[in-house]
Amino acid sequence: MMRSESRAFSQEQFRARVRFVLVLLVLTALTLLARAVQLQFVEQDFLEKQGDARYTRIAKISAVRGSIYDRNGEALAASTPVDSVWASPPELIRAADQFPRLAEALNRDKKWLEQLVTSNLNREFIYLVRHMRPSDAQQVAELKIPGVYLLREYQRFYPAGEVTGHVLGFTKKYDDIGQEGLELAYDHSLGAEPGAKRVIQDRYGRTVEDIESIRPPRPGAPLITSIDLRIQYLAYRELKAAVQQHNAKAGSVVVLDVDTGEVLAMANQPAYNPNDRDQVSPARYRNRAATDIFEPGSSIKPFIAAAALASGRYHSDSIIDTSPGFVKVGVNTFRDRTNLGPVSLTTIISKSSNVGMAKLALSLPPDLIYETLRGFGFGQVTGSGFPGESAGLLNHHSHWKRIGTASISFGYGVSVTALQLAHAYAILGAGGIRRPVTLRRVDEPVVGERVIDARVAAEMLRMMESVVSEEGTGNRAALVGYRVAGKTGTAWKAENGGYSTHKYMAVFAGVVPASRPKLAAVVVIDEPSGQKYYGGEVAAPVFANIMAGALRLLGVPPDGLEQLPETTLVQAHRGL
Length: 576
Fold this sequence. Notes:
Blueprint: H1 2-42, H2 44-55, E1 56-61, E2 68-69, E3 75-87, H3 89-92, H4 99-106, H5 110-118, E4 126-132, H6 134-141, E5 148-157, H7 165-168, E6 170-171, E7 178-180, H8 181-185, H9 187-190, E8 195-201, E9 207-215, E10 223-224, H10 229-245, E11 250-257, E12 263-269, H11 282-285, H12 288-291, H13 301-311, E13 319-321, E14 326-329, E15 332-335, E16 342-344, H14 345-351, H15 354-362, H16 366-375, H17 402-409, H18 418-429, E17 433-434, E18 449-450, H19 454-465, E19 485-495, E20 498-512, E21 519-526, H20 535-538, H21 540-554, H22 566-575
Helix pairs in contact: 4-5, 10-21, 13-16, 13-19, 15-17
């Protein structure tokens, strides 16, 4: 009896336990099913966002800054691809054991890397190295260290180096943002806008899938300048040689196209290489031709003479008595090197007589001189748009006294830039038509403004040709086969409220060919040392060398063959 009861109890216990297990299994299954429903439908968006946060990134799409070219398509500035190595400190710290390998690949010290990472654990992005060569950066990527990534960027490169440095300027060292020169002036069009996209990356930072485009990249627009690299090189070479030869402090050259106002060359010394940022300092990179002002000395005399011709009271053969070789204005006495006596206005220009120019200016209404100088662009920017260009200094005639009028007639009391002076000579060469100066290539005819009668401009050019004759002060600017119209200038430099008697600015400015001017150029040599310091000795030969090469490069036909010896013409004919 007891056994049967025990057997019945055991069977009942077994069934109860089975039912209990079944209930547990059913409850577990229902729980899992409910959780699955919750994950699939209720918390789907949350989970997707969490997954995306771990594996998706917003990737930058680099865009290329616009290239800069000379007028003939030669590259002056371009952006080359480089890679920057960056890291996410919270990720990278988990691979601290890889720091020695990473530091070696980056060519950095291990302690530097450790300090950089540990001090930025609250940041998601830090640069490790900027602008590595792609081949070197690839070696870093091949280490496959979590939290280390590559970013494609671009570095600015200037093929001509210091030859075009002052014109082009430069961008920031690591960011393509213009800082000086044309890079700054046209940053709004040269500058690129990077794009952005959402991507999925693996644990090594490699992109495995592009999800969506957020913003397309916008590359910068190219800039075609007015610069002719061939002439630019000529100007750079000849100016550098002259500054070294005369142990000068500095120098500038500007070459303009008379018909369009285009700057074909603009060079300065001392120069700098924009590819070597260790050289970049304000004293070296400022464009002296556009920013530095100086008193032009006798190179301003053609414009005073132009005012005299425009008055109708004078012509090229008008006689001015310079006796006895000096003139007294107030308490000041101005002298010529020799007493020229009664001479024509043309001789006043060719011999650069200060006495004759002072007497001429004092005989004219001050407002006529002032308006003439303003018409030639003095006291105004040239319209080039170059950053920091100076307008020079020309006081209103109402502030002039007799001594001021006399001083201005031979280039004191007025200040100009080399670019401004070249512009004024280009106006004379253009027959009295003023066109704005431009650093961009011009493909259409440029409409200008007449500022002086064409007859006056033509007569002035003929007078300026005498400067380059054997008897003139600028005979070293003469060219074989071409007629040259120009003017020398030598001015004492202002110093300590007065003028130094041993520091000079040597200048030569002119146009070629004189019969139909194509080019206008100015050469300025700052503080030449030694026995030679006159503009005709120091600056004129530089002008001649540059213009000889430029006219040949541009294929400008000669206009002075009748001045050549007959034997030279025969030799030239046989060489054809």
